[in-house]
Amino acid sequence: MSFAGNLFDAGFRGEAIYSMNENDADSNYVRGIIGMDYQFPHNIYAMIEYQYNGEGTPNKNVYLNYFSRLMNGEIQNVSRNYLAMMVSYQVHALVNSSLTSITNLNDGSGMIGFSLGYNALQDMNLGLGTMFFYGGMGTEYSFYAPAFYLSAEYYF
To answer: What does the pLDDT read at residue 26?
Structure first.
């Protein structure tokens, strides 16, 4: 199930799924996301999203049971409730910057990232960014080291 539309001048959207295992009813779960975005004057854009992950756990003491599935790409996160926020600013017609935050609402850990993008050619974008992680011992994002990256995208 999904929806998308406007709430006044802001974009408003959401989607949800119910995953059912016929052989194991205890493994059924709901996952959903709801979000809003808004284009402010002066080239500023903001977005906020809440995600509910019924497959995850609110108990950080059992995260280790989920990490092998996370590392294998079977799941995207291990907890239940997340908040994502992003603000971007178009510095110049060819240069974009953004600040992103993802917070695990169950354990208080999260990620803050900054990126800068440059539209080098009509079909080519270059970027650089960084991600910093925070959280107490044993929280979801406390396991990650800071990351720095360069990117190049070419479209044909």
So the answer is: 76
Q: What is the pLDDT of residues 97-126, one digit of tens each?
A: 999 999 999 999 999 999 999 999 999 999
For 7-38, how does the pLDDT look when each residue is reduced to its tens digit (9 = 90+)? 999 999 999 999 988 787 777 899 999 999 99
- Alpha-carbon distance 140 to 64, whole Å? 9
Residue 103 CB neighbour total at 10 angstroms:
19
**Number of domains present in the structure of the chain:** 1
Strand, coil or helix: 95: strand
- Whole-angstrom Cα distance, residue 31 to residue 51? 8
Report the residue count for the chain.
Answer: 156
Half-sphere CA count of 94, side-chain side, radius 13 A: 9
Contact between residue 34 and residue 7 where contact means Cβ atoms under 8 Å apart: no
Helices (H), the chain: 64-71
Cβ-in-10-Å burial (0-12, 13-18, 19+) of 61 comes to exposed
The CATH number that applies at residue 115 is 2.40.160.40
